[in-house]
Amino acid sequence: MECCEVGIEAMNVYAGTACLDVRKLIDHRELDIARFNNLLMSEKTVALVSEDPVTFAVNAAKPILDALSEAEKNSIEMLITCTESGIDFGKSISTYVHDHLGLNKNCRVFEVKQACYSGTVGLHNAANFILSNTSPGAKALVIAVDLCRFMVLGEEDVNKKDWAFSEPSGGAGAVAMLISNKPEVFRLDVGASGYYSYEVMDTCRPQPDSEAGNADISLMSYLDCCEQTFLQYQQRVDGANYAHTFDYLAFHTPFGGMVKGAHRSLMRKFTQQPPAQIEADYHQRVTNGLTYCQRIGNIMGGALYLSLAGVIETGDFSTPRRIGCFAYGSGCCSEFYSGIVTEQGQARLKSLEIASHLESRYQLSIEEYERSLRQNKDVRFGTQDVIVECPITDKIQQQQLSPRLYLKRINNFHREYEFQ
Fold first, then answer.
1. Confidence of residue 151 (pLDDT cuts 50, 70, 90)
2. Its domain of life (predicted)?
3. Would you say 409 and 388 are in contact if contact means Cβ atoms under 8 Å apart?
4. Whole-angstrom Cα distance, residue 258 to residue 250?
5. What is the pLDDT of residue 192?
6. How far apart are CA 167 and CA 156, in angstroms?
7. Which residues are catalytic?
């Protein structure tokens, strides 16, 4: 029997155990408050030394898997981790994730990297596997996970005044998506997709724990790709209209101001509406997608899906609604596609209580935050041996309602984890 429906059966966001008030950071760094206001940020997740891409990925996926029967869990035949925050040049984090989630060993596991586009690569690869129907009834697990670790080597680095605005917006998190032919949360419009790519040096990671690039070029590339991907979407979908086809829009979100600017640009080009109507449309169709992004920060490969989760969680789905999704990854690759969400899908996402998880995060002081920055070097890419000690994690564990995976040690490059 041919498979004709595909999409997200279940979805969860994990935003770590600790966060920081971004306004406090802006004040502490003495950064330009006008630029801060354009970020549209309130909090950011901070990855502690006991957390890495593996712990974020496992903790995002585990609630989804815990709700499955053993037969359903064993039907997961593909695990794709999507990240630019890998911990080894060869061994993918999917191997660790597969192990700690207790997945069936008859499973393909691999990792994809394409800057912030990685989560969309994973989603569409998984969807095509389901659509191929080569293994009827199979499911795929896609986890988009990224984190920003700002390295400091001494007191003089912590106190410097010229910190880039990537620090306030850089977050950490993971979005886990179970992909199947029962797309209860988000049903893809199969074939309704426009993509656009070219080589550009906007942002890159020339070293594992640092980022370089040109913010102005990145913004222009993002805006260009927004327009070009939608134009190709229009070619593939008869009658597609940016203003009327989509009830909501979800964007890759480095920070809220970039999304607002992109939406305004597209509305001007495709609708010629006056500024007041464009502003009203932004609040009606776009701001739901900032719900979680404003509290977690830029999680790169998972940023679009953090936006999508916000739309599904807070939108009106009393009748089925179509969501337009824009993915962008520096370098660059981009895509505009769409899908349908129903009231039942919203209820399924809400059952995982993402908002409650965000509220339960530990609020770091500036002193604790800067101490965590110093500890980042202990678990950086290439670390061979270390015992991980994190007093903040010990405090948080007493408040947790269920065990979470934490990094405990690195032994001859092998990372060892425990649920606590």
1. low
2. Bacteria
3. yes
4. 13
5. 97
6. 17
7. 84, 116, 252
Task: Give 127's contacts (C-beta < 8 A, 6+ positions apart).
Answer: 6, 7, 179, 188, 190
User: Which residue type does 176 have?
Assistant: A
Q: How confident is the model at residue 247 (pLDDT cuts 50, 70, 90)?
A: very high
Q: Treating both helix axes as pointing N-terminal to C-terminal, what angle do 93-101 and 53-66 enclose, rounded to 10 degrees?
A: 30
Under 8 Å between Cβ of 77 and 109: no
Pairing of strands 333-341, 321-329: antiparallel
**CB contact at 8 A, 381 and 85:** no
Please give the Cα distance from 86 to 322 (Å, whole number).
Answer: 34
In tens, the pLDDT along 319-349 reads 999 999 999 999 999 999 999 999 999 999 9
Sign of CA dihedral 404, 14, 87, 179: positive
Query: 3-class secondary structure for the chain?
Result: CCCCCCEEEEEEEECCCEEEEHHHHHHHHCCCHHHHHHHCCCEEECCCCCCCHHHHHHHHHHHHHHCCCHHHHHCEEEEEEECCCCCCCCCCHHHHHHHHHCCCCCCEEEEECECECHHHHHHHHHHHHHHHCCCCCCEEEEEEEEECCCCCCCHHHHCCCCCCCHHHHECEEEEEEEEECCCCCEEEEEEEEEEEECCCCCEEEEECCEEEECHHHHHHHHHHHHHHHHHHHHHHCCCCCCCCCCCEEEECCCCHHHHHHHHHHHHHHHCCCCHHHHHHHHHHHCHHHHCCHHHHCECHHHHHHHHHHHHHHHCCCCCCEEEEEEEEECCCEEEEEEEEECHHHHHHHHCCCHHHHHHCCEECCHHHHHHHHHHHHHHCCCCCCEECCCHHHHHHHCCCCCCCEEEEEEECCEEEEEEC
3-state secondary structure 98-159: HHHHCCCCCCEEEEECECECHHHHHHHHHHHHHHHCCCCCCEEEEEEEEECCCCCCCHHHHC
Give the gyration radius of the chain's Cα atoms. 20
What's the chain's length in residues?
Answer: 420
Q: What are the pLDDT digits (tens) for 62-96?
A: 999 999 999 999 999 999 999 999 999 999 999 99
**Bridge partner list, 208:** none
Return the closest-CA partner of residue 75 out of 129, 12, 16, 135.
135
The token duo for 261 is 């600017």
Sign (positive or negative) of CA dihedral 82, 84, 87, 92: positive
